[in-house]
Amino acid sequence: MAANPPGQAFPNKARVAILAELEKERRRLMQSQSMNTPGASISLSRPSLKEFRDNAEQQHIAAQQKAALQHAHTHSSGFFITQDSSFGNLILPVLPRLEPDS
């Protein structure tokens, strides 16, 4: 097995030093940004896979709600709304309240 030439070790050390310096600068910028505008911080990291899946699932449910609502309005004389349901219903019927005759 051949050993690495002595000139190759220096660029690796230089890379590590540069990456460490960039990380320090990134932290300093994030800290100064959070101090200047606490409510408007911008995330420099990418969203996690779970967040991506949740967003895709919400978009899929929204598309299903829209299709179900359109189908219900087309094939029924009633009125329906989209609303989250604890039973998994995508749309709910709206029933009017009738005042009792006195």
Structure, briefly:
This protein is 57% helix and 8% strand.
What does this structure look like?
The chain has a domain at 52-96. 57% of the residues lie in helices and 8% in strands. The chain is built from 2 helices and 2 strands; from the N terminus they run ααββ. The protein has a two-stranded antiparallel ribbon with strand order 1-2. β1 and β2 form a beta hairpin. The protein is elongated. The mean pLDDT is 75.
Low-confidence runs: none
The number of distinct helices, counting runs of at least 4 residues, comes to 2
How many DSSP E strands? 2
Shape: elongated
Keywords:
102 residues, mainly alpha, two-stranded antiparallel sheet, 2 helices, 57% helix, SOSSC, nucleus, DNA repair, DNA damage
List the helices and strands and how they pair.
Elements: H1 6-36, H2 49-75, E1 79-82, E2 91-94
Antiparallel strand pairs: 1-2
